[in-house]
Amino acid sequence: MQKAMKILENEFYQILSTKKEHLDPESVSKSSRSSHISRSISVDSEESTDPGNEIQHTTGAESISEAEHLSLLTMSDLKMIADCMIGSGYAKECWKIYRIIRKSIVDEGLYRLGIESRSSAYVNAMKPNVLEHQVKHWIDSMKIAVKTLFYGERFLCDHVFSTSKTINETCFSDIAKEGGIVLLKFPEVVAKMKKSHEKIFLLMDLHEAIAELLPEIESIFSFDSISSVKVQAISSLNKLKISVLNIISDFELSIQRNSLKTPVPGGGIHPLTNSVSDYLASLASYNGVLSYIIADSTSTKFSETDFDSSLISETPKNSSVCAKLAWIVLVLLCKLDCKAELYNDIALSYLFLANNSQFIIERVRGSTLKIILGDEWILNLERKVKLYSTKYENVAWNKVFMCLPQSLDPLTSSDTIKEHFKRFNESFEATYQRQKSWVVPDGTLRDEIKVSIARKLVPFYRDFYEYYMVVLSGEKDLEVLVKFSPDNIGNCLSDLFHENVRSRSLILSSSTSLPNSCVWQCIS
What we know:
By secondary structure, the chain is mostly helical. It is built from 23 helices and two strands.
């Protein structure tokens, strides 16, 4: 018996050590997915020798390659030897040989994939581009390790030691436990790194990769003796989740604590608006991962005193991701309200709010945020833009309107008419000159504002101009008294709010008109 077992032990060792190409994880994984294994092995070794084609072995309705066939034959030989040795009381000798050789295979496979233990100090010392490369490499390697290396090893172990659950569990635990923990420890180490807003995307990539493969990890490492691998996977997920939530919270606080006290020239787009909008657009592309991470977190509470709570309540189905992203936009809008107070000119502060709100709308429309926040949310913010534009118009141009009489009286003296023209000239020129440096970056909003002003001011001024010019027609220095014709007014308005474009000079002659502008065409 001892001699027979020694022969089997040597044969077992020889098969494991010399036929590794038939027992590599990839071959075993492919073989595991071929049905009717027992019948595949029992097929006669007659082979098709059709030149240029891979040899095929037919098993019922299914064909497997020669490599798979040889892998299945090798696995069958191992199983028969293991069954015999275990049944004869030589289980210990059998699994010791198996464990030593197969663990070296797993360790070598992980090494070739670049999987090794990383300390927190080592990861923290990585430059951002190196860390990003390491994370992407780990994700690719992890998929291969789980789907091929560990899956194939578990299948081989289950097959060879199918007659003994205890030996099967012990062998697989000894072979895969250490490597599995090392593999799944890396994301936890990354999650514990020093936080930065940019690293959130790497963390979500890691979270998504583990969550996607978690069912397979739980299936492969299902034994109680190796449950620490599953625990490590879940621990890494939780650490990544906590880290992502903390970064989002820190991001909200960074918006609230933004201390830039310098007003943006001309009421243009604030750097905070630009950076927050871009960041949220990037976050929105991770909608699926965020849904999982934010779903179980403490929901943000909204009070009725919040700035325009409709921007929260109108998010689609009020989902956790929608509510969170809408809340961050709300925090930004509140902060922009504070930034608007830095302007000495109230009209400019309203223009600033309109510009920045419009920028957020366009950023939402051009990204996944539109799908998440929804059309109703966008419509609500558009109403805010309209409100800001109207307030700007009323504050900035009301004084100009007040310079003209509310009704045309034929009995009005020439001195009174001259005074109206004088006050209008001064008020319009002062308003125009003050606003030459103001900007509206969005072309649609810019045209809407200018057309709105022109449609009210130009017809009103035209009636006044045409009615009283007859009275002043005989006056000397008429060009001094009446500096602007209705055409001049429309073209001057067209010059406003352009970025990096030198405004045209005021046309002081009432007899010469500028070429028709888009605004002038709209009101003609």
